[in-house]
Automatic annotation (TrEMBL), chains A, B, C, D, E, F:
Ligase in keyword set: no
Record key words, sorted: Kinase, Transferase
Organism name: Halobaculum gomorrense
Source domain of life: Archaea
NCBIfam families: KDG_KDGal_kin_Halo
GO molecular function, one term: kinase activity
Keyword Transmembrane: no
Domain Carbohydrate kinase PfkB: 1-296
InterPro entries per record: Carb_kinase_PfkB-like, KDG_KDGal_kin_Halo, PfkB_dom, Ribokinase-like
Alphabetized Pfam families for the sequence: PfkB (PF00294)
Designated name of the protein: 2-keto-3-deoxygluconate kinase
Protein family according to the UniProt entry: Belongs to the carbohydrate kinase PfkB family.
Gene3D superfamilies hit by this protein: 3.40.1190.20
Amino acid sequence: MTDLVTFGETMLRLSPPQGTRLETTAEFDVRVGGAESNVAVAGASLGLDSVWLSKLPRSPLGRRVVSELRAHGVRTGVAWDDGDDARLGTYYLEHGGEPRGTNVIYDRADSAVTTVSTEELPLGVLDDATAFHTTGITPALSDAAAETTRAVLERASAAGATTSFDLNYRSKLWSHAEARETLTALFDHVDALFVAKRDAEAVLEREGEAVEVAHGLATDFGFETVVITRGDRGALALHGGEVFEQPVYEADTLDAIGTGDAFVGGFLAKRCAGGDVDAALEWGAATASLKRTISGDLAVVTPTEVERVVAEGEGGISR
Amino acid sequence: MTDLVTFGETMLRLSPPQGTRLETTAEFDVRVGGAESNVAVAGASLGLDSVWLSKLPRSPLGRRVVSELRAHGVRTGVAWDDGDDARLGTYYLEHGGEPRGTNVIYDRADSAVTTVSTEELPLGVLDDATAFHTTGITPALSDAAAETTRAVLERASAAGATTSFDLNYRSKLWSHAEARETLTALFDHVDALFVAKRDAEAVLEREGEAVEVAHGLATDFGFETVVITRGDRGALALHGGEVFEQPVYEADTLDAIGTGDAFVGGFLAKRCAGGDVDAALEWGAATASLKRTISGDLAVVTPTEVERVVAEGEGGISR
Amino acid sequence: MTDLVTFGETMLRLSPPQGTRLETTAEFDVRVGGAESNVAVAGASLGLDSVWLSKLPRSPLGRRVVSELRAHGVRTGVAWDDGDDARLGTYYLEHGGEPRGTNVIYDRADSAVTTVSTEELPLGVLDDATAFHTTGITPALSDAAAETTRAVLERASAAGATTSFDLNYRSKLWSHAEARETLTALFDHVDALFVAKRDAEAVLEREGEAVEVAHGLATDFGFETVVITRGDRGALALHGGEVFEQPVYEADTLDAIGTGDAFVGGFLAKRCAGGDVDAALEWGAATASLKRTISGDLAVVTPTEVERVVAEGEGGISR
Amino acid sequence: MTDLVTFGETMLRLSPPQGTRLETTAEFDVRVGGAESNVAVAGASLGLDSVWLSKLPRSPLGRRVVSELRAHGVRTGVAWDDGDDARLGTYYLEHGGEPRGTNVIYDRADSAVTTVSTEELPLGVLDDATAFHTTGITPALSDAAAETTRAVLERASAAGATTSFDLNYRSKLWSHAEARETLTALFDHVDALFVAKRDAEAVLEREGEAVEVAHGLATDFGFETVVITRGDRGALALHGGEVFEQPVYEADTLDAIGTGDAFVGGFLAKRCAGGDVDAALEWGAATASLKRTISGDLAVVTPTEVERVVAEGEGGISR
Amino acid sequence: MTDLVTFGETMLRLSPPQGTRLETTAEFDVRVGGAESNVAVAGASLGLDSVWLSKLPRSPLGRRVVSELRAHGVRTGVAWDDGDDARLGTYYLEHGGEPRGTNVIYDRADSAVTTVSTEELPLGVLDDATAFHTTGITPALSDAAAETTRAVLERASAAGATTSFDLNYRSKLWSHAEARETLTALFDHVDALFVAKRDAEAVLEREGEAVEVAHGLATDFGFETVVITRGDRGALALHGGEVFEQPVYEADTLDAIGTGDAFVGGFLAKRCAGGDVDAALEWGAATASLKRTISGDLAVVTPTEVERVVAEGEGGISR
Amino acid sequence: MTDLVTFGETMLRLSPPQGTRLETTAEFDVRVGGAESNVAVAGASLGLDSVWLSKLPRSPLGRRVVSELRAHGVRTGVAWDDGDDARLGTYYLEHGGEPRGTNVIYDRADSAVTTVSTEELPLGVLDDATAFHTTGITPALSDAAAETTRAVLERASAAGATTSFDLNYRSKLWSHAEARETLTALFDHVDALFVAKRDAEAVLEREGEAVEVAHGLATDFGFETVVITRGDRGALALHGGEVFEQPVYEADTLDAIGTGDAFVGGFLAKRCAGGDVDAALEWGAATASLKRTISGDLAVVTPTEVERVVAEGEGGISR
C-alpha cells in the first residue's frame, strides 16, 4: 500500500554561501529540489510511504537526485535516460535578504524529464495509492511532459487515488494565457487544488476575496477541495461547502524556498492519515513554518515537531 | 593564590551547521561545554585565576577537553581514567530558531566523571581559593558524583572559600523530587545560590514573586546570597537583607547555550575582585549578553568589553 | 525477491580533517560505518537489492544512520529503541599517515544493538533472500547480540539463503579465546567464511600457508567457500575443492577503512548475480581498490567502474 | 575615456567566521578593502570605467589586491614596491552583533603606500577622466601620502576632472586637530565633499543642523557639492544652492563595512552618467543598502538591482 | 599593442571535494575553465597582455566567468547573449586517483557560444595582436562556432598575427572523421599546430614516430611550427626544419586538468617575448609542471617561478 | 620546578588551502608558529613543564598566540605591549609541492618582540629551570632582542639551567656575516648547539664532514653537546667526546614546517627526563617524523606515539 505518489521534475540546486554573490562565489552548496519531490519528502518525513516518479539522466548527477530523495525516505520510480545528451535540470539560488531579494536562475531547458512518457514510468505504483500529487510546473516543461501529466492524472484518478494539484505558476516557463489553457484542461482529473491567491488572479483570472475565489473555482471545475494560500496572511480551504481559515506560524526564516511544498506535504500527510481539512491545514502551516528554519528545499521534520508547533507555536530549549 | 575553583562534568559538544539537521548533517562543529567549566572560562576571561576539577578518560578526547579549557586560560585539575571503557560525555546540539527550537541530545551515561572520588582530585588547590562553584548537574550524574560534590563543597567551605551553587535542574537526568532531596542536602555548605525562577518553583517548590522566593530560600537554608534569574525579565539578588534588580542587556543571539553560566562567571569575577553585589549583577548580565553573540558554550570576553556594555549597552564600530 | 540481507551494528563515524588531531580539532566529518552495512552498501551500489537489519535509538542520530544507508540504496529493517538511554555507537577516526598511523577510538558500549532480539527484527525479509551476511563483530557486542546472531544465521540458513560470515576480529571487544569459542559455535550455519590470514592464525589457531588454512577450515567446519585475505598480497579462495588466487589492484589510498567490507560486498554482488568464484574475487578486489580512493567507510561505486578496473586496472581521464 | 579614478590604500581584510573571536579563530575569510578601491568597485559594478591608483608590495599579497579589484572590473594603476621590507596593510575585522559590536584592528603602519610619490603613479590616466575621488584616510597615512594626495588632486582638477573627497576621519590614525589642519588645506582642489555629520562636528568643528553645516562648508571652502551623511537618518546634499534629502533604504545587514563607500560609488556612478544630484542620492542610498547584504567591503551590484531598489525598495523572489 | 588573443568557450567548472563522489556530494568547488581562456590566463600570468573572445549569457553566471578571468589579468571581449534561454556551459569534474580515474561530465549543449558570430565579437583587437590562438574544441561546438572560428583565424592571419591551434580532440563532441574534415579545412590559416601524439594518430591519421609525424604535418599543411606532445614522454617541436625535444619536469600532481593549456600558454609567452622555440618548449613544460600543483584549470604562476623550474627543476623552502 | 624555558618570537601563521595560491585565496588557515614556542609545545606534549617567554601586543591577536600555546599545555610568560602601534609578526605560508616549492612571506618588522627587555620578562621562572632554549632567529630581530637574548642566556646559565641554542639562520633577516658575528658572541653561555650542516658551512664557515664540524665547534666554543642535522641524511651528535648517528624515520609529509623544532623538542624532552644523548636523538627524530604528518608548526604528539615510532617506525591501524 502506497500513501502518496508524486510526479515532476527535480533539479540540482546550487547556492553560494550567505552574503556571497553568484558572480564571485568559489563554492556551491549542493542540494536537490523540485516541487513534487519536495512534497514527497515532507510526506515521507511525516510518516507517509511516498513515491516520486520522474525521468533522469543515467549519470552521477541523476543518481545524486535519487540519493538525496532516498535519504529522506522517498522511494523513487525513475525512467533512466541513457542518451549522451541527457541532462539534469539545474537551478542556481542566491539568498539575498532585503532589499537584494532572492535570485533564482534556472538552467532546465531540454532536461531529461522533457521527453518523459507514460510507457517508461512505473505507473503500477498508482494502483494502490491513496493520493497522487503534481503541480503546474510539470506541464510547462514540454508538450511531452504536459501530455504525460494528463495521462498520469487520469490513471491515478481511475485507480481511485485522491488527486491534488498545486498550480505553481512559473513566469520563466510560460505566459499566463498558455498556463491557463493547459492547466484548466487538466482540472477534470483533479480532486484538490492548491493555488496562491496571486496565481488565481493572474492565471485563472479570478478576482475578489479568497473565499469567493475558492467557491468560484470549486463550482467551475468541480474540485472537492480548494486551498488558497496568501503568504503572510495564511491559507483558506473550501471543502464540502465549508470554509476553513489557517494563519501562518511565525518562523525565523533561513531559507524560504520550498515553504509552499512543505505546506502541501504537511496537508497531505494529515489527510492521508485520515485527518480533517482543518487539522490538515494546521499540519500544512506548521510544516511550512518548520521548513523555513531549514536550509534547502526539503522539510526534514517529524510528526512530533509538527504537533508541537500546532500545540504551542514555538520550540524553546529542551534538555 | 587561586581565585575560583569549579567542579563538574565537561562534555564534547557536537553541532551541525545552522539550518542543517542532525538527521542529515555531514559535519559537526566541535567544542566542549559543561556548566562548571563554562563558569571557570568566563571567570578566567575576566581575569580570575581559575581552576576546573573533574575526571576524564585518558584519551585524545579527554585531552580535547583540557586543550580547549587551557586555551581560555583555565588551569585543569584532572583525574585521568585509564580504564578501557572510560568515556567522555557527549552532547549533540541543534540550533533551530523558532518554531523549531533548540534540540539537545545527551550521550553522557557512564562517563568517566560518574566514578569520581575525592581521593583522585587535586583538592589542595582549594586551600587558598577565594571561591568555589558547582552546580546541580554534577550530583545528578551518579551517586559517586553526588557524594564527591558534597565532600568537595564541605572541604571548600572548611578552607574558607565562598561557595556558590547553581541549581541548574536537568529533567533528562532526574525527577524534581530526586533533585530536591539530593540538592537541599548540600545547601548547608553553600553560601550563594543561583537558581532560575522556574527551577525554584518546580524543584524547590517555591511560589510567589522572585523577591519572596529569595527571602524564603535565604531564611530556610541560611544562604548569604540568593540570585534568582528570570530569563528576559532579568535577575534579582538578595544579599545582606538587601534586594538588587538587574535587567538583561539586549543581544543579537547567535548561541544561547551557556548564557546562564556566563552570568554566574561574570558575577563571580566581580565578586572575587571585591565588587558589590549590584556591580556583580551588572557584570553577570553584561557577560551573559556578550556570550549570546558567540558560538559555543564559552564566554570569551574581556573586562573592557563587559565594562563597556555596563556603561553603554552596545558595541558599534571602532576604527 | 531480496538479494542480500546483512545484520550488525552501524555507528556514527566522526573524523577530524586530514593533518588535524582529535586533541585539537574544531570540526568532524560525519559519516556512518559498520562492517555489515558497509557490505550492504557495496552490494546495493553494484546492483543488489540489499537490506540491513539492526537496532537503533529512536532519535535524530538513529535516523542519521538510516538516512545515509538509504541514500546509497539500502533498505533498512530497524528495531527502534525508545528507551531514554538508548544510544548510538560512535567511533572516532584519525587518519595519520606514516609513521603516525590510523587511530580508531570506539565509544560503543551499551549501544542500542546490544539489546537486540529476534522478535523485534523484521526477519520475514530472509524468507526470499538469496544471501545473508554478518560478521564476527556482532556477537562480540553482547550476549544478546551473540544469541540473536546465532538465531538469525539459523533462520537464514533454514530459509535457503547462502550465508556468509566475515570473522573480523576486534581486539578492543574481546580476547582471542572468547572470540574463538563464540564464533566457532556459529559456523554450523555458515556457508562461506571470509577471514584475514592473521585472524585465522590468532583466533582460529591455524598455521601454515593460506591454502592449507583454507583447506583445514573447510574440512573442519564444512564451509562451502573459504576466502582468506592477506592485505597487499591479495586474496585466496577455496571453493568446490578448487583454489583461486586474486592479487590486489593498486590504488591511491585516501581512506583505507572499509576496504575489507568493500571486498566482501563486491564478491557477494558477483556471486548473487550468478558469477563464478574467480570472477567474484576479481569484483571483490576491484571494489576494494576503488573504495580506497573514497572518503568514508562506504564503497560508492558502479558495476561499470568495477568492470573497468577488472579489465584495465586503472582510470585515466575521460572527456 | 575614463569615468572615475580613485587613489588610496587597499588592505588585506581578514575576518573570523560569524560568532568566532579573533582570540581563538582557526580560519580567516580573506578579502581586500580600502575606501577608495571600494568606491572604484561600486562604480565599476554600476558601469563606470574605473581606475584605482596606489602602491603595493611586489609580492603575492600585493597581487592578491590587484586580483580582487580586477575581478570586479576595476583597472589598476599600481606602483610596485620592490623593497625587501615592502608590506601590505592588513586589517582584522570581527563582526560581533550587539552588544559586542564590530572590532577593527589595523596593522597598516609602514605599508608600501606610505612612501608613494607622484612620479611612480601612472597619472596620465587623469588626463581624460570625468571624475577623481579620494578620502581623508590617504593623507593620514604618512607625510608622503599626504603630499601625493595634494598633488594628485591638483593634477586631476587641472585636467578638468570633477574631484570629490570623503572626509572619513579615522581616530586610530590621527587627532581631530591634525586631520583638520591637513584636510582643509586640500579643499581648494575639491569640488564635492562627502562628510559624516559627526566628522563635520568633531573634525571640521561645525555645529547645527546638517543643512546649516552644508551651507557653511560650501561657503567657507567653495565646494560645488556638499553631501552630509547621518547614518540611519539618511543623507542630505547641497548643490547649486539647492538642498536634497535622501532617506536610507532598509536592509538586512550582514556586513556594514563599506556601506559609506558604496554610497559614494553609487552617487558618483549616477553623476558620471549625467544624473542629477537627487537621482545620485537615490543611487547612493540604494547601492549602500544592497552592500549591507553582501559580505566584504565591496558593493557587487548591478544597475538593474539599484534601479529596482530605487523603484520598489525591496527584492522578493523572482522565478 | 596586444600580445595574445584567444577565442573559445569557457565553462563553469564544478567539482566535489577530494574523496567525495558526484553522487553524494554536498558541495562544489566553483571555478571556470576552457582551453582558450586557460591559455590566455597562463599567458597573462607570464606577462602577456592577453585578450579572450567569446560569447556568454548576460547573467551572474556569465559574469562569474569574466570575473575570474579578469582576476588573473585577462581582458575579455565578450558578446553578451540577452536571450532568456541563454546558458553557460558547465562541466562537472570528479578527481578520483587510481584506479578510479578522473571523471568529466559536460553539460554544454546549446551554450551561448554555439550561436557566436563574427559581427558580435570585438575583433578590432586582432589588428595589433602579436599572436592568436584557438583550439579544435571551438569548431566542434556548432556550425556557427566552426564558421566563426574560420573567420576569426582568417582575420587574425590577415592582420599579421602569428596564429596557433591546439587540436584538442574531444570524443564527447564529435567523431574522428568529423573532426578531421572540419579541422584540416582550417589549417590554411594556422602557423603553429599543437597536437597530442594520440590525436595526430586518431584524428589526423598520422603514424610513426613523433618526428616523422611533425615533418609530415608541416609538409602537408605548411605549418611554420609543429609541436607534438606525448604525455610523460615530453614534447617535440619542429620549427624551421629543426627538431627540439623537451622532457617533462616532475610534479606532485594535485590537479592535472589544464596541464596542456598551461604548456601552450607558457610556450606562447616565451615566443611572444621573442624567445626561441627551444626556450619556449622549456617555458611550456615548466608552466605545465607548475600547473599540476594548483587546483583548477588555471596556471597562476610567475615568470620567476617558471625560470626557477627551468633552471633547477624544483622548489624547496625559501625563508 | 620547571623543566624547559624558551624565549623568542611567535607569529601568526596564515596559509591558503592546499592547491590555492596566495594571489587568489579566499581563506586562510590560522595557526601560530615560532621556533622557540614550537620547541616548548613539543616539550609540553612529551611531558615537560614548559614555559615560553616573549613580548606580544595587548590585543586579540596577541591573545590568539597565548591561547594556542596554552591549549598545548605551555605556560606563557608574556610582556604585554600596550602601545597603539604594537603589532604581532605574521607569516604567510603557501605549500606548493614540487616543483612549486613552499613559499614563506614574513611580515614581522617592528613586531612587539623587537623592543623586548629583560625587565619586562618574568625571568624568575629560570631560577628552578632544568633547561633553557632559544635560537638564532631571536637575536636577528633587533638590537634589543639580541641584547635581551644574551642577557637571558646568561641568567639561565647562571641559574644552573642547561642552555641550548638552535642556530636557525634566516636569510631574510640578516647576512651570513652579521649572523656569525652576533651569534658566536652568544656561544659562551650555550651548553648545547643544534645546527644544520648547511648553516654550519655558510654561517660558521665550517667545512668537511659533519663529525669534523662537530668536533671543531665543540673545541672552538666549548659546547658540551653539538647536534648537526642533515635533512634526509639524519642527525649526528657529539657529546662527551662520543659521536652518535641517527637516521630519519620515514614519513608521509603533510607539512614540513616545524620539523626541526620538533626534533629539538623531542631531544630536550628525553634529556630533561634523564635520557642519554642517543635516546634523545631517537626521540628527536621520531618527534620530527610525527610532526611531518600534522598540519601547522606544532608537534602535537604523545610519548607513547614517539616510543612506538622508535620501536617500530610505523603506525598501522589499531582497532
